[in-house]
Amino acid sequence: MARSGSLGLDVEILRRLNSDRLVRVLEDAPGAKDLIIDGDLMKMLDRIAGATLLRKHGVEKMYRLERLPPPIQSSQRVYIVRPALVTMKYVADHVHENKQSHPEIQAHVVIIPRTTTWVTNLLEEEGLFGIVTLHEFTPDFIPLDDDLLSLEMNNFFRDAFLEGDFSGCVSIARAVHTLEGLYGRIPNVVAHGRAAKAVLNALDVIREQGTPSKSHHTAEIGHLFVFDRDADYVTPLLSQVTYEGALDEYFGIHAGVVEFPVEVVGQDASRKVPLNSKDTIYDNIRNRHFAGVSSYLITRAREVKGKRDQAQNMTTAQMKDFVVNELRTLQALQKTLQLHLSACEEITRRMRRDFETQLQTEHGLVTGVISSGDAQNFLKDCIARMLPLASNLRLFCLYSVTQDGYSRRDFEAISTELLSAHGYKHLITLHNLRQLGLISYSDSTLNIVSGSGASSSGQLQERLAQVTSLLPKKGSGWRAACKRLRLIPNSDVPVDLHNPSHMCYVFNGAYTPAIPKIVGDVLQGQNNASLADTLKILPGTSVLCSPPSGSTVIPRVALVLVLGGITFAEVAAFRLLALTSSTRILLASTNTTTGTDMISSVAQN
Amino acid sequence: MNRAENDAYWGSTDTASSVLDNFFDEDSDVGWYGYSSDFNIAAKSTTATTPRVSKNDTHSSSIVDNIISSSSSTHSISEGLSGDLDNVSVSSGKLTKNVRAIGEKLDSWKPPSVSIKWNTQGSGSEACMHCESKTEEIIQLKKRLENSYSRYNFTLPPDDMVNRIILGQPYSLENYRSLEDKLALIDTALGTFDSSVIFVTVLHLKNTVKKSIFIKEMQSRAHAVQVYVHYLKQRYNYTEAIDFLGSLGRHEEAAILTYKWTLSGKSPSLKVKNMTKSLQSHFSDPALAFESNMVKEHAKLIEQQIAIEEKDNGERSSQMLSEYPPESSIIESSLLDTLLYCSKYHWDVSESHIASPVALRKSHAISERQVLWTVLRGRAQVNHWPLPSDLDAWMGSKGLIGALSSLKSALSGVGRVVKATLPVDQVVYMLHGANAPPNVLAAYITLVDSLDLRLKLAVNCKSHQAVIEVYIALKDRDALEKYLKEIPVGSPEYVKAENALKAVRWKT
After folding, report:
1. Which of A394, A404, A566 is nearest to A478 (CA)?
2. Which GO terms describe its cellular component (chain B) (predicted)?
3. Residue B410 contacts by C-beta under 8 Å, 6 or more apart in sequence?
4. What rounded mean pLDDT belongs to chain B?
5. Is the Cβ–Cβ distance between A236 and A593 less than 8 Å?
6. A419 closest CB neighbour out of B256, B263, B294
7. Domain range list for chain B
8. Looking at residues B13-21, what average pLDDT do you find?
9. Cβ–Cβ contact B301 with A under 8 A
10. Which of A126, A372, A468, B312 has a CB 3.0–4.6 Å from the CB of A92, allowing a cystine?
C-alpha cells in the first residue's frame, strides 16, 4: 500500500540522534573499555549502533551481563543495564569482586532509560555510591519503519499494568519531548489511561525545564494520541490474520526483524530478515489479509519469470543491457518472492487443523453470535488437548473480556482444567490476569430458586434485586464500550478482505480495533465533548487538550502512542486509516507485541 | 539463576536501612565526598548569614503551610539581599515560589567554580566602578546564601521536590519530618504515577515512622502499596512482603505470594512442606476456598510424583521404560502430563498401583474430557491404539461416572463416551498425525454423525475402510466404483468394497 507523502517530516533523524547520544555516553568514559550489556537491551542497542561504531569509540570487548563477572581486559568497564534491582545487584557484585583483584578498574554504569531511586539506593547500600560512575541514556524512539517507532521496552506491559511501575513513562515522555523539539509542540492531545496520564504529566515537567526557544517552532504534527494497552485488550487477544501479524505470531518480529526458521530459508541455520517498506514486495503484502498473500506472490513471481524468459529471445546487445541493468534486480525480486512464499507455506503448515473453528469462536465471542456453552466447550477442549499455554489463556481471557466476566462457577471449572493441564503454579498467572482485568468473574450466583426460603414473593424480589445489583451495570463493561464506539461492523455489509475499505478487515470483518477507531473518529472531526463521553466507558481516565479556537490550520499529521505494545493488526488498520483519512499517521509504541507476548510476560515461569 | 538461589543471594545482603539523602548528579563525576568537602568551604565563609536562615526553618514545621502563602513574599530574599545582607528576612516570610527558583539555582551550582570565581572577582573589584562591583558582589553573595542553605536544612514544597526527583536532580527528604509533610509528599508523588518517586517517598515514611502508622497510611494508598510490594518482591524479600500485605488485610495477595514463595523451595519435598504450612495462614480465608483447594491438589500431586518416580527408578529395566525412555522427570510436571506418563508406562496395572492412571484420575477428579484426550495421546506415544469401545470399557469399569457412561454406551452404541465428550474430528486428526493404523481411524471416523464430515475426514486421512462405509451409507454406487481404483487390488478394503458393490441394494 502506498503511503501518503512525507510532509517534510523525517524520522530518520531519530536514528542519528540516538547513536550520537550513545556515543556521547560512551565518550564519558574515554579510552579503551569493555562493555557488559543487559541481555534485555541487546536488540535495542543493535538497532541504535552497530559494533563498528562502538569499536570506534573505544569498545574492546562486549559481554552479556551474567551473574559472574567476565574476565578483565581493559581498565574500564561500562555496564549498560535496565534499572532493575536484580541486574544492579549483579553489577554491584561484579564491582566488589573486581575491586579486590584489580583495584585500578573503573566501573561505569549506564542506566537505560533512566536512573531510578531504587537503583541509587542500592548502590548506596552496597557502599558503591561515588565509586561507580552513573550515566543515564534515555533512548529516543527507534524508527522501525517510516511510520513505526518503538522504544523497545518489552517489559513495559508487565511493569506498568501488573506491578504498577510507571517509571518508564518519564523516559517515554522524554522521547515525545524530543519529537516536539523536532516538529514543534503538538496542539491537540487525546490521552487515555494511567500510563498515558503519567507520560503527559512527565511531559509537562520536562517542558517546564526545557529551553523555551523551541516553542515558537510551528507545529508539524497536529494530533497526539496516547493510549494504554488496556484501552483495548480484545485486539491483542484475537488471532491476527494480516501477513505481518501472522509473521509476528508464528515466527516473532523483534525490533523490526524477523527470524525465519530453517524450514523457511531452506538452509541449515535460521536467518534474520529486517522487515520494512524498503522491501517493495514486503511493503505490498505486509498489510494484506493472509489468505490473499500467496496468490499475490505467485502472480508477481510469474511476472518476474516472464521477464526473465523474454531474455531468451533477445539479441546479444539487448542481452548485454539486460544483464547489466535488470538481471540483478529480477534475481533479488525472485529471491524475496521465494522467501515470502515459503514463509506462507510454513505458516499454513503450522496452522492448527481447527484454525477455522478457533477464528469462528473468537469472532463469535466478539460479535455475540456464539453461545457461551459452545465457546466454553471449545476452550475446554483446547485446554484438554494441551495446546500452548499462551494460546489457551488468550481464549480464556477473550471470553472473559467480551462476555463481561465469568460466573464464579464457570471460572472455577475452567481454571481447574487449565491448572491440571498446564500446572498448578499458573494459579499465580490467573491471579495476575485478574489483576490486569483480563479475567474477571462475578459472584452473582443464580441460586434464587434453589434457596430454601425463597418461596414468598417478597423474599424472591429481594434476592432478585440483590442479584441484579451484582451483575455488571448497564453502560459499563466491554460490551457497552463496543456499542458506543461501534466496533462491531454491521454484519449485513460485506467486507472485502482483499481490497479493504474498512479497518475491520484485519479481523475478518468481525471487529474494528478500538484505538484506530477512536483516532479515526477524531480525525474525522468528532468533537471533544462527545469524545470525552465515549472514553468514559473505557477503563481509566482521559486527558483532552485542544488549542485555542481560531488558531492556525492543524497539519494532517498524527502521532499515536500506544503504551504497553502495539500489534501489527493495529498497525495495518492505522495504515488503512492513513489512506482513507489522508492523514500521515506516525505510530509509536513501547514495543510491538502479540497477545502471546503480552500474556507470556505476565505468566508465572 | 533460579528463585531459590536468588533467595539466598539477597539473603546474604543484609538490607541496610536505606539512607535518605540521595545525591546523584548525572552530569558530574564528582562523587558525594568531593561534593561535601567543597561544600564545607563555601559554607564556612557565609557563617554570618546561615544561623538566621536555619532559625527560620525551625519555625516552619510544615512545608504544606509554607506553600500555600501568596506571592507577596516572593521577593523577600532578593530584596533583602539587594539592600543589606544582614537584613535578609526570610524568617518572616513563608517559603513560596521563590523556593523553586532557589532549587533551580542550587542545581546549577558547581562548588569548585564558585570559589574560584569569588576569589578572582574579589580582587578585581577594586579596579571596577564602585556600584558595578557591588552588584557583582551581591550576586555572588546571593549565590552563596542559597548554597549555604544546604540540602540538609532546606526543604522544597512537595510538588517541586517530586519534580526534582523525576528529573533526576539532587534532593533530600530529610526535612520532611512531620507526618503531614511526609504524607503530602507521598500523595503528590502518587499524583505523578512515577514509581521512582513513589518508591523513595514511601521508603522515607517506612523508615521514619513506626509500623502501625505506616500500615494505617498505606491502607488508603493502593498504588503506593503496589510499588512497595514490587520492590520487596524484586529483592526476594517475600517474608516482609507477605507480612505487609497480611497487615493490610489483603489476604488474597498475601496468600498468592506465599504460594509463589513456596514454589521457590529447593526440593520437591520442601515445597510440599511449605505448601502444607502455607494453607494454615492466609489461605484459610474462606473466600480463598478455590485457591487453597488448588494448592492442596498441587501438594498432593508432587507427593504422588515423588512416589511414582521412586518406584520407576527401581524398575528402569522394565520393558516399557527401556523401549520408550521418559524424556524428563515427571516431578514438577502438570497433572495431565503425569496422567500422560502413567497411561504411557502403567496402562495395565491394577488400581492399587501407585502409578495407575485410573487411581490418579480418581484422586484428582479429572474431567472425562481431559482424561480421554490425555489417555489417547499417551497411548499413541507408545503405539497403542485403544478403540472407542476399549475406552468405553476403560472409563466404564471405573467409578460412578464410568458406570453411568457405560450404561449410556450400552443403550446407545459403541464409543458413546468418546462421542459425547470429545470433538471426534480433532481426535481423528490427532490419531492420524500420530500414524494410527487405518482400522483405528475408521473406528473413530464412524463415530461422526454427519456423513459429509465423515467423508471429509476419511478422505483426508486416507482411511479406505471409512470412505467405503460412507459411500455405502450414502448409497452412492458411482462414487464407490470410482473410489475402488484408489484401493490396492486384493486388499481387505478392496474385497469389502467389491462385496458391497455386489450386495447392497443401490439407488438407481
Report:
1. A404
2. early endosome; late endosome; vesicle tethering complex
3. none
4. 74
5. yes
6. B294
7. 15-111, 149-249, 423-508
8. 37
9. yes
10. A126
Q: How many CB contacts within 8 angstroms connect chain A with chain B?
A: 177
Does the CB of A604 have a partner CB in chain B at under 8 Å? yes
- What whole-number distance in Å separates Cα of residue B195 and Cα of residue A116? 9
**Residue A88 — φ and ψ, nearest 5°?**
-65, -35
Contact A67 B1 (CB under 8 A): yes
- Does residue A113 have a cis bond before it (omega within 30 degrees)? yes
Query: CB-based contact (8 Å) between B304 and chain A?
Result: no
| CA-closest candidate to residue A478, choices A505, A431, A514, A445 | A514
C-alpha cell at B275: 505448601
Alpha carbon of residue B146 to chain centroid: 46
Asked if A529 and A556 touch (Cβ cutoff 8 Å), the reply is: no
The answer to whether residues A212 and A306 belong to one domain is no
Q: Of the candidates A466, A436, A441, A437, which has an alpha carbon nearest to the alpha carbon of residue A451?
A: A466
Separation in Å, CA of A519 to nearest CA in chain B: 25
CA–CA distances in Å: residue A530 to residues A223, A525, A536, A556: 17, 11, 10, 21
Q: Which is it for strands A253-254 and A223-228: parallel, antiparallel or unpaired?
A: unpaired
pLDDT reading at B216 higher than 90: yes
Task: Flag if A166 and B374 touch (Cβ within 8 Å).
Answer: no
Cβ–Cβ contact A476 with B under 8 A: no
Domain of residue A463, residue span: 355-468
- Pair (A217, A308) in one structural domain: no
Report which of A44, A102, A12 is spatially closest to residue A255, judged by C-alpha positions: A44
Mutate to test the interface with B, among A93, A94, A121 (most CBs of B within 10 A): A121
C-beta atoms of B297 and A195 within 8 A: no
- Of all residues in chain B, the percent with pLDDT exceeding 70 is 67
List CB contacts of A352: < 8 A, sequence separation 6 or more.
Answer: A358, A387
To the nearest whole angstrom, how far is the Cα of A197 from the nearest Cα of chain B? 8
pLDDT at residue number A317: 81
Cα A165 to Cα B50: distance, rounded to the nearest angstrom: 40
CA distance A127 to chain B (A): 10
CA–CA–CA angle B497, B500, B501 (5° rounding): 90
Which of A468, A503, A538 is at the close of a domain? A468
Interface test with A, best of B32, B105, B192 (most A CBs within 10 A): B192
- pTM score of the predicted model: 0.81
Q: Judge contact between A436 and A602, C-beta under 8 A.
A: yes
Test B334 with A420 for CB contact under 8 angstroms.
yes
Find out whether B408 and B374 touch, Cβ atoms under 8 Å.
no
Facing residue for B167 by CB, picked from A130, A197, A205:
A205
**Separation in Å, CA A500 to CA A293, A508, A573, A577, B143:** 14, 10, 10, 11, 66
Which grid cell is A313?
529471445
- CATH number of the domain to which A452 belongs: 1.25.40.850
Q: How far is B83 from chain A (nearest CA, A)?
A: 30
Q: How far apart are CA A177 and CA A182, in angstroms?
A: 9
Q: What is the mean pLDDT of residues A576-605?
A: 94
Interchain contact, B196 vs A120, CB within 8 Å? no
A198 in any annotated domain = yes
Per residue in B352-383, pLDDT (tens digit) is 888 888 889 889 989 989 999 999 999 998 88
CB A221, CB A184: distance < 8 Å: yes
CATH number, domain of A124, equals 3.40.50.2060
Instruction: Give the whole-angstrom CA distance, residue B436 versus residue B383.
Output: 8
- Over the stretch B419-459, which tens digit does the pLDDT of each residue have? 778 888 888 889 988 888 888 888 888 888 888 888 888 88
pLDDT per residue as tens digits for the range A550-578: 566 788 899 999 999 999 999 999 999 99
Say how many domains are in chain A. 4
